[in-house]
């Protein structure tokens, strides 16, 4: 929730779906009805199989959707996550507020192609592409 507040303070529109509490149909509705292009997923190691499934669902709806993963598991084994789950595009590790904002700024104000973002931002601290 802290990331959401930080992004809202920086004029980004944020929609949170907590799949531990809410029905998965809300995610499906968001995929169908919104113009979201970037999806953030957080989770601990125990939830990683669910994270992979959700990332796959997001990409199956539109392969151009960008999936960002953060949280304890992402921070601990970032390179492994990208190797294991090709549906995750970018890892934000550690305290990711500023890194995530920088990534969104880059996407919205400079370049929306994920491959170019990965190339240009691969050296950004806290980011693994």
TrEMBL record:
<dbReference type="GO" id="GO:0031419">
    <property type="term" value="F:cobalamin binding"/>
</dbReference>
<keyword id="KW-0411">Iron-sulfur</keyword>
<dbReference type="Pfam" id="PF02310">
    <property type="entry name" value="B12-binding"/>
</dbReference>
<dbReference type="GO" id="GO:0046872">
    <property type="term" value="F:metal ion binding"/>
</dbReference>
<dbReference type="InterPro" id="IPR051198">
    <property type="entry name" value="BchE-like"/>
</dbReference>
<keyword id="KW-0949">S-adenosyl-L-methionine</keyword>
<dbReference type="InterPro" id="IPR006158">
    <property type="entry name" value="Cobalamin-bd"/>
</dbReference>
<keyword id="KW-0479">Metal-binding</keyword>
<feature type="domain" description="B12-binding">
    <location>
        <begin position="1"/>
        <end position="114"/>
    </location>
</feature>
<dbReference type="GO" id="GO:0051536">
    <property type="term" value="F:iron-sulfur cluster binding"/>
</dbReference>
<keyword id="KW-0408">Iron</keyword>
<protein>
    <recommendedName>
        <fullName>B12-binding domain-containing protein</fullName>
    </recommendedName>
</protein>
């Amino acid at each position: 929730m802290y990331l959401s507040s930080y992004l809202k303070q920086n004029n980004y529109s944020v929609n949170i779906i907590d799949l531990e509490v809410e029905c998965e149909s809300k995610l499906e509705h968001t995929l169908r009805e919104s113009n979201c292009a970037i999806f953030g997923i957080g989770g601990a190691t125990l939830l990683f199989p669910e994270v992979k499934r959700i990332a796959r669902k997001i990409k199956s709806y539109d392969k151009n959707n960008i999936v960002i993963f953060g949280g304890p598991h992402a921070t601990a084994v970032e390179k492994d996550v990208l190797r294991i789950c090709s549906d995750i595009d970018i890892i934000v590790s550690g305290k990711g507020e500023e890194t995530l904002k920088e990534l969104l700024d880059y996407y919205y104000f400079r370049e929306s192609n994920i491959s170019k973002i990965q190339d240009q931002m691969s050296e950004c601290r806290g980011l693994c592409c």
